[in-house]
Amino acid sequence: MLEKELAKRSLPDLFCVPGKKTVTTKDDWESIARPYWRRILLQEEYGMLPPVIEPEICVKANAINFAGKAMWEEVSFKFKRNGKEHTVPAQLIYPKGAKGCPFFVYLDFYPEIPSIYLPVEEIIDGGFGIFTVCHKDVTKDNGDFTDGLAGLFREGDRTFDDTGKIAYWAYMTSRMMDYLLTREEADKNAIGVAGHSRYGKAVLLAAALDERFSFVCSNESGCSGAALSRNRCKGAEAIRDICGAVPYWFCPNYLKYVDNEDKQPFDQHCLLALVAPRRAYIGTAVEDIWGDTESQFLSCVAASKAWNLYGKAGFVSPDRLPVCGDVFTDGEIGFHLRAGEHFLSRLDWQIYMQSVRKFLDK
Ligand code: GCU
């Protein structure tokens, strides 16, 4: 049944790269397809990533310790370029005495700790560390490209493949990864990246591009995130909607695909496939019609074959569309569909933590 559903989407084949032989092995994937999808997605959708600049780091302890269970430090990243500078504060919170513990690099809507989407105590109790940043400290969620990190890199008007805001947010999570790798509290092989909705899109991009992330938890990322855009479901967000409301999330080239999804040389399964052979967890909610659960699910089905090249199962699910309460975590791609609305809930975090534990315990 799922094969039929996928056929209705007429997706570009992950293994067919224009002008090259068809990909049949992991080596072909790594030398031909992966660089191609990476380039196409940046050039046509998110914009090119800014060059890496090494920030000056300053660490300050915070006395709040969550009933003595955790340590909390503020880590500031001072970036300097062309006579300008911008400092991004991030919060590092980890179980007291942690050594080699799994971590979430987390991109938040809100500056508060904990925030409505970030239940710090539950995550610490789950044995995970958190390294969190509020998006607006990186660059604000608007069309102002003089703001924050964007202001360091901006040169003139935005054209073609210029970095969009999603790519700036993704870039920052990689700088946080650079720092986390210097800390003995973190298990270098168990650092993932997590985010909800627009930040679910950004973290999927981050994990697709930065292979040091062992896993990604992309919650209800929807259009231009995990959801396929060809033949989307009724009521779901389209490229026309997203480019009409928030064109600055993307590069100007993406506008070419408004009402023209079939002309995209890619679809969102290509982004998900770039995470192979690592772990990707996609969370969805039944009432999130705008986020298009079914198209996110089918993206998992379509991306799975990239994992198969590594001799891995990829996405394991019954041969049917998902129903409320489904949690599929047997393969490297995890998917859940919970009851309720668009939100990053306690239940979502519990499922992500259990899924990550499952692979760490293997
Ligand atoms: C809007 C937008 C979505 C986005 C969501 C969010 O609804 O259309 O694409 O995911 O905001 O970030 O909450």
User: In total, how many domains does the architecture comprise?
Assistant: 2
Q: How does the major sheet shape up?
A: 10 strands, mixed
How would you state the average pLDDT, rounded? Answer: 97
Radius of gyration: 19 Å
Total number of beta strands: 10
Strand content: 15-25%
Identify the bound ligands.
alpha-D-glucopyranuronic acid
Low-pLDDT stretches are none
Short structural summary:
It contains eleven helices and ten strands. With 362 residues, the protein is α/β, with parallel strands linked by helices.
Characterise the protein shown here:
The protein is globular and about 55 Å long. It has 11 helices and 10 strands. The chain has helices spanning 2-7, 26-46, 120-125, 135-138, 148-153, 165-180, 198-209, 239-245, 268-273, 293-308, 346-360; strands at residues 56-62, 70-81, 84-95, 101-108, 129-134, 186-196, 215-219, 279-285, 327-328, 333-338. It has 2 domains: 1-46 and 221-342, no CATH class; 51-194, 3-Layer(aba) Sandwich (Rossmann fold). 32% of the residues lie in helices and 21% in strands. The chain has 362 residues and is of the alpha/beta class. A 10-stranded mixed sheet has the order 1-2-3-5-4-6-7-8-10-9, sandwiched between helices. α6 (165-180) crosses α7 (198-209). Residues 197-198, 222-223, 237, 242, 245, 290 line the site of alpha-D-glucopyranuronic acid (GCU). Alpha-D-glucopyranuronic acid binds next to α8.
